[in-house]
Amino acid sequence: MKGLLALFVACLIAAGGAIAQAAETWPAKPIRLVIPFAAGSATDSAGRLLAHQLGSLLGKPVVVENKAGANGQIAAMAVAGSAADGYTLFMTTNSTHSANPHLYKELGYDPVRDFDPIVRVGMLPFMLVVNPDLPVKSTAEFLAYARAHRGELSYGTASTASMIGAETLNVMAGLDLVRVGYKASPQAILDLVAGRLQVMIADFTTAMPHVKAGKLRILAVTTANRSALLPDAPAIGETLQGFDMTSWNGIFAPAGTPPAILSRLEKDSLKVLADAETQAKFAAIGFEIAPMGTSQFDRYMRGEIAHWGKLVRAANIQPE
Asked: What is the pTM of this model?
């Protein structure tokens, strides 16, 4: 028995030494950054900017891999099942790590148990946009029109935030907007531009080019107060008191990733996010950098699980 115990302890020590050595030589090859949404989405655009800058600091390429579908569940399960060696990272949002636990009766992953948080990158504000053919130019006019045309207006959604935002409008304003699901936000936006949809709660990154081109009309932003990225646009809450919805975005690794690697990723990620040129690039695509280090982000993310649970219940969304 003593011999077996000694052998077990020796194996643990050897394994610990191997892990420490691997952390010292990391990274020795390209790193994979998994994005749970399609190319062209807000998280994809932000992820590619961050990957380029982070790769420069780490000395190895950070390669973006899109795994869209099921509100991020496909990507989350893939990352959770990956080796915890620092070569697979996950740039995701409140969809996988705050809302999904309340939208699905069963998940193939646990947002707390299966991931190590690294940094919060920032906030992703959304806007209420309509097809220009809709005869409304303000939130108040839209609410009145939607009430007068119950069940006639369709909204597109490719993320939990856009769906919960629209369903919150349904409940708070007494509307009957009809949900149409999409795999990716760019697809929904194109249908909104074409008139196959009438309204959408859309992220700045995806919708803003069409707003600037006059192909979509912005009515308001979804944040509690006006956004610094679009100061002239009123908040929905100015018309519909209490409305407040903002999405967050952050980087995770599979649970069990060596602390030395997590620490290096935290340090270099925060350095990238503090760079003024990088901040300007993020702002240009409609993304508000608001970094948090690992410990603060961990507390924040856990609190967001409860917060999004309240939003889901308030919007009367039943888990699937």
From this structure: 0.85
